[in-house]
Amino acid sequence: MFLKGKTALVTGSTSGIGLAYAKLLASEGAAVMINGFGDATAIAAECAALAAASGAQALYSAADMSKPAEIAAMVAECADKLGTPDILINNAGVQHVEPIETFPIEKWDAIIAINLSSAFHTIRAALPGMKAKGWGRIINTASAHSLTASPFKSAYVSAKHGLAGLTKTVALEAATFGVTANCISPGYVWTPLVESQIPDTMKARNMTREQVMHDVLLAGQPTKQFVTVEQCAALALFLCRDDAASITGANLAVDGGWTAQ
Ligand code: NAD
Question: I need a labelling partner for 7 at 20 to 30 A (CA). Which of 40, 100, 151, 217 fits?
Fold first, then answer.
């Protein structure tokens, strides 16, 4: 339990990759604040499970990552109730797929706000506490789309490339304070988000489930395997170890070789 006494704040952690981060950090003793949308009963059950695993508190913030004032209030609440975050994982993210000519302006604004600007706001609020303690870990879930592009994802690709740049800048600003900042950049991860696209794609392309998985979703992923949420979380946990103190400003691909092509 090497994270006993540490506090972790994980945005977008009511499902998928974020929840896997929260579970693994709690299993090493961290007090965790989770965030995101979802069913209140299910979220309360997750908090209870996290607290049982860590032996520390686990709290939930309903802050909307598109709203700077709510983000500031979330970081302040975390500091008040659990302690200033030692580990900050910016993971909340949304997607919209459409050609740029018709891409709705409000979708562009929302994706930039949630996938990029929220990390600016959380880091801005949390970094002083980390610097004061002389230890901190900032981990941003970027994407293979922070390193390469795909058509029809203008906002997502722009936000994720921006997040990679923000991470490098923060790494430089924090380098002498024992604080590291890195991106984890997954390829296609098996989450409810990905699974829910399959039925529509089967219909649209007249394909079987297996064809959609291998010929559409995994077409660009050389391993022909989905990344798992546990693999992403394992890397995040490693970044929290003292062994990872010299890894900063890195954009770590977990993408089955996608961006090696
Ligand atoms: P997910 O939909 O399971 O999780 C997204 C989380 O963000 C949820 O907890 C959701 O409630 C939360 N969220 C959405 N909008 C929010 C808002 N306005 N305020 C607060 N929380 C909000 O998806 P996931 O696949 O686990 O994605 C997590 C991150 O990983 C995202 O940043 C995504 O871009 C990135 N990612 C995912 C994949 C993939 O294949 N699944 C690949 C690369 C990167």
Answer: 40
